[in-house]
Design goal:
16% strand, alpha+beta, 298 residues, disordered C terminus
Length: 298
């Protein structure tokens, strides 16, 4: 299947994309199980599992989180564990920005050119984005210090004005990004902030936090007990791990998650230039879309 902007895709096209992502998730789950690493489905994926038994009909991605220790172990061993496969595990570094604060598990046999990263010379393939779960510090001062570090990390690591966070935050993010023009300088800032925010975490706080997924998450209360263990939940024919406190977690994140959002919000959240579920990405595929040119229609 080949389409342009996923926001303009038909339900059949979205479903085709979802099924391909499901295949990728099966591979990821098998790799993590082989190496005794745990993960949880969260966000829209978890809502879909609880409410719909699978994908929310208009959802265009899969939301995954791993506890920091497993998250870092997976990334550290990526070359050995993924050797000889069609998969990559990538992360922003000094030279390359993925425009994402986590790690991304990519299928090299596909193409997925996202608007926010079209100008980056990266592997533009379908992927599953994985975020880490960290502990809060003990004490209010350290808690707010961690939040400050997390904001700095997210801003310069993602290296773009935030999506889905409101116009005010987009405006507030614009100037600090412009004030630090080079990738090397941004890397020094966010890598320093990342170390600081992670080091502040303390299991004795009894709270966990998603430090890179958005401003609202930084001020949300998440009980560490919600993530003490995983429970099985059905998702489009797969059995996936949900946090044991999924109900309390989802209520903290979205409120009444059993209700559908307004009709105008029932659309994919990404803006894409090109998706091809069957064709491997090559650099020429993004050339027509670079520097803000009109994206290809479905």
């Amino acid at each position: 299947m080949r389409i342009g902007n996923i926001k303009e895709a038909t339900p059949t096209q979205i479903r085709t994309l979802q099924l391909r992502e499901l295949e990728l998730l099966k591979h990821l789950q098998a790799i993590l199980k082989e190496h005794n690493l745990s993960f949880y489905i969260i966000g829209g994926t978890l809502i879909g599992a609880v409410r719909d038994g699978g994908f929310i009909p208009w959802d265009d991605d899969i939301d995954i989180i791993m506890k920091r220790k497993d998250f870092e172990k997976f990334y550290a061993n990526r070359n050995e564990w993924l050797k000889g496969t069609n998969f990559l595990l990538e992360r922003s570094n000094e030279k390359v920005s993925q425009h994402l604060t986590g790690i991304t598990f990519k299928d090299k046999t596909t193409t997925f050119i996202n608007q926010h990263s079209v100008n980056e010379n990266i592997q533009h393939s379908m992927s599953l984005d994985i975020d880490p779960l960290d502990y809060r510090p003990v004490g209010k001062f350290k808690r707010y210090l961690q939040i400050i570090y997390a904001i700095i990390f997210s801003l310069y690591n993602a290296d773009r004005v935030p999506d889905h966070q409101g116009k005010l935050l987009r405006y507030l993010a614009y100037l600090p990004l412009k004030m630090v023009p080079t990738r090397r300088a941004k890397y020094k800032i966010w890598s320093w902030a990342e170390k600081k925010m992670v080091k502040l975490g303390n299991p004795k706080s009894g709270e966990v936090v998603e430090l890179g997924v958005g401003y609202k998450a930084l001020f949300r209360y998440d009980d560490a007990k919600w993530f003490d263990k995983a429970i099985p939940i059905q998702f489009d024919g797969m059995t996936l791990p949900a946090p044991v406190g999924y109900d309390a977690y989802l209520k903290a994140v979205v409120g009444d998650y059993t209700k559908l959002p307004p009709k105008e919000e029932q659309i994919p959240k990404h803006t894409t230039y090109l998706i091809d579920t069957e064709t491997p990405y090559n650099e020429k595929m993004r050339e027509p879309f670079m520097e803000g040119k009109i994206h290809e229609k479905g």
